[in-house]
């Protein structure tokens, strides 16, 4: 069953208001002026223009920034045919830096003062997000059940892009029959299943989602793959279990800066001295940027995107960085493909989740697409080795 905030079946009817761009409303005038910097109009006719339905929308956005923008969309206070393009334009114009500073300040202070990804809190994202329902994610994702960025260099479909991403990872790791692969944050086992079937390796996967572990084990039946329902930190504490290769695909975003050293220590004690470790993660451009408060509250609780410098700082005691590959622009196309599949499948899930969830999930997918289109977020694949590859590492 979904968490409580996902159970609303309908939206409350907002007060009846006319479309207002009246400059006598100070809040609306202020928002209109800001949006004009991004070539967005209130009440305009272009796909990225905003239509306001509720008289307090502007006040809420000015007071709460990103949190107010997302919450008011969830509740039907405003609409826009192309939320993805709206968000991209807002970010390119850097309007996010001018609104809702208090919410961002609070979010930044929380991250600095507390370990938001401690062992007690780490299971929250699994329960809130990944345990929504395997059938729900089946409808949105491709046949591999890959819930990370696809690689679209030579792909035309989501299925092909995800297969290309999985094969790229296997080739970067140099997988060969007989090797053992550890997947930290393995999801439904998309990488492990592909690697076992196409490269003849055996795999161990760690996940904090019970739904993922049970469903993944069923999908991988008959293959040399095991799922372990546990946090990464206590894994292989004595270092007795060693793997030829390690991958972590789209999980590092949940680790948090305070836990980066522990994450790389786990990888270091679990990898053979001549092994390779591939880290695939979303990242931010500037380390001081706090987590978006709307994403933190409604989608990925306790998430924390790393900067490239934070990854380098945390890994330098254990690893040599061999290769950094940025294909963040591909996440825009991946998210838009997920959104298309989500909307097509929505009638099957409407009675289970309700319209508020529908708008929340649509906003999540489209707003995230906008962040990658604006190049505010990145997607890195980083290959690391314990001691440096003799003669150098060459990306396949």
Automatic annotation (TrEMBL):
Name of the protein this chain belongs to: Cyclopropane fatty acyl phospholipid synthase
Lineage: Bacteria, Pseudomonadati, Pseudomonadota, Betaproteobacteria, Rhodocyclales
InterPro entries cross-referenced by the UniProt entry: CFA/CMAS (IPR050723), CMAS (IPR003333), SAM-dependent_MTases_sf (IPR029063)
Keyword Transferase: yes
Annotated family: Belongs to the CFA/CMAS family.
Region listing for Disordered, in residue ranges: 1-22
Active-site positions on this chain: 368
Membrane-spanning residues: none
